[in-house]
Amino acid sequence: MNGFNNTARKCYLREFLLILILIFSLESLSKADDISEFEIEGMSIGDSLLDYYNLNEIKEQTNEKIYAGTNKKFSPLNIYGAKSELYVGLQIHYKTDDNKFIIYGIDGIFAYDEDPNNCKKKRLEILDDISDNFSNLEKSEQKNVEMASERGYMDRAQFFFKNGDFIDVGCYMYNDDASGYTDHGRIGVVSKELETWIVSIK
Q1: What mean pLDDT value characterizes the chain?
Q2: 81 near 87, Cβ under 8 Å?
Q3: Angle, to 10 degrees, between the axis of helix 16-24 and the axis of helix 116-133?
């Protein structure tokens, strides 16, 4: 998924296990097999953005540049901080031509400033809790792999549902020459259709 720029800097989350509880509601969802049952900031895949933002907000905060040169099947809505106490920002994907603005992916972004070890430690805590509570999900993990954009490296784990939708937990570390991008952590819920399209345009 695409990086957030320097607008999202200088924010740090206090107790990351609390976020995990708020997002996943571990006790009630430990047997969930449908990604639509997971929420980030109260939103789930399959919801309409219009239930959370008005049309002007959606248009104003949609990033038209990220997928320039593609068929723009999907568009990303970037929300920076204003409506969230847990995240620096949110990135929400919807189909560009969908007048219902159905959500296909939600990412919660948290910054960790200068020390990548902060993010890595918190990421491992999250992975342990997900593994303990969602043992039915297939897990895939990558460490210190180059981003498709070649802007830096990432540690990333994914937990897959049977239909190909997945939960994504990662730390993204950008090269010194990657101007405009900030190292950060990311928790996401992503539909298979969105991921298939993103992979196809890389």
Answers
A1: 81
A2: yes
A3: 40
